[in-house]
Amino acid sequence: MANDLSKYISDNEVRQFLADAEENLEDLESALLEVDEKGANVPELVNRMFRAVHSIKGASAMFGFHAVERFVHGVEEIYLLVRKGEAPLSESLVSLTLKAHDLIGRMLRGATCDEETATLLNALQQFQPASPEPRPVAPVAPVAPPPRPPENGEWRIRFRFNPACKVFDYATNPFIFLETLRERGECRITPITDFVPDLERMDFSVCYLGWEARLRCDASPEAIRGDFMFIEEDLAQLEIVPAPPLPDDLPSPPAAKPPVRGVNALRRRRPGEPLRILIADDEFPNRLLLRKLLEPFGECDMVVDGEEAVEIFAAELGAGRPYDLVLLDILMPKVDGRQALREMRRLERERSSGPLQESVVVMVTALDSPREVFDAYYRGGCTDYLVKPISQGGLYGKLREYGLDVA
To answer: Where are the beta strands (DSSP E) in 183-261?
Structure first.
């Protein structure tokens, strides 16, 4: 089984996964058949269809049904377009999805359907947006190649947050980017204070500081830009250019300190005290797997939707027993993970929880959408994120980053 998780999953749990998958297939079929009655432009039906295939895909990956995962991923991509209004829920798509429903059921029962799934996925491609016809254009000057580092191998990196984006309202930590640069190589960082206003005009939710870094490494500008994968969306300004030579008498930069992240959980825990962990996911297999991976390190509470997550988070916070670690699935019924995250951070602010007292919140998603993660990471105030299928190494690696020493 992928990610070497077989030791955590019993035969009974596989049977439970198959039963849950069957329920999702029944709901998918029911929603497809209701299209004739309610019409194709009913968001509730589209959401039911998407949730069903999304749930089957995520759980199939965790339980080792990788052929099912690959096939359902292709179906999910089309329904992601339908949800966005970029593809119609036509009679043809409903018919193909009913065929996909039957194929998924057969595959879960052990059938090999490679040829049929390939044919059906090919048929679904008709619902992908057509690429526009290329227009003839006038000849243009050749594009300049990307900048190459000078002989000293150093890049100058400047970045600052846009004042309109109130990053401190969302518990954004700008030093994460600086730590990432230091991990790449020898790095000298200086602040840019040109935009800091007088105290009486300061908005304390805005980050007015910028930073200039001189980084010596053999990475390309594209690789370095990847370390800032979210901040250029509409959050900040970023410039990466070859660094000019430094004066000979400039002192050497101080030795880099190891990154310290997630001190919030550590600052309020006594040595050896178990973590208090909340797992919020509407899929039983996901909750089960996360609990088995995390229960050696603390007490795990589990809920099935964002509404329950906020309720228990508020109750435990009010009782003086805040969670150290929260794992939130992004796509959940009633209240989704992003809404739950915002409410949790609001509750913490009301209790005057400073950054060192906030819970570490890790978003868990199977969506291949940077925008979903971007929204949770910067506008919601999450600490980090994981993409399904969750691996033992990936999960434990995150925990180590945030101060938990796991085997």
So the answer is: 186-192, 210-216, 236-242
Q: Are 283 and 306 in contact (CB under 8 A)?
A: no
Comparing CA positions, the residue from 305, 258, 299 lying closest to residue 401 is: 258
Separation between Cα atoms, residue 160 and residue 207, nearest integer Å: 8
> Per CATH, is 2-126 categorized as 1.20.120.160?
yes
Query: Using the 8-state DSSP alphabet, how is residue 389 labeled?
Result: S
Largest Cα span, the chain: 80
- Please, are residues 21 and 87 in contact by the beta-carbon 8 Å criterion? no
Q: What is the pTM of this model?
A: 0.51
Amino acid at 332: M
Which candidate, 75, 40, 68, 245, places its Cα nearest to that of 154?
245
Question: Which of helix, strand or coil describes residue 260?
Answer: coil
Sign of CA dihedral 109, 113, 114, 119: negative
pLDDT at residue number 107? 93
* CATH code for the part of the protein at 154-242: 3.30.70.60
Residue with tokens 């999953």: 9
CB-based contacts of 162: which residues, under 8 Å, 6+ apart? 234, 235, 236, 237
Nearest to 320 by CA among 342, 346, 353, 345: 353
Q: Is the dihedral of CA 327, 330, 333, 334 positive or negative?
A: positive
Q: Do the Cβ atoms of 69 and 293 come closer than 8 Å?
A: no
For the chain, domain boundaries: 2-126, 154-242, 263-401
H runs (alpha helix) in 304-377? 306-318, 337-350, 370-374
User: Would you tell me how many other CB atoms lie within 10 Å of the CB of residue 30?
Assistant: 13
Q: Quick one: pLDDT band at residue 95, thresholds 50, 70, 90? A: very high
What tokens were used for 133? 């016809």
The length of the chain is 407
- DSSP code at position 382: -
Q: Which CATH class is domain 263-401?
A: alpha beta
Strand 384-387 versus strand 154-161 pairing type: unpaired
Amino acid letter, 361: V
pLDDT digits (tens, 9 = 90+) for 307-340: 999 999 999 998 888 998 999 988 888 888 888 9
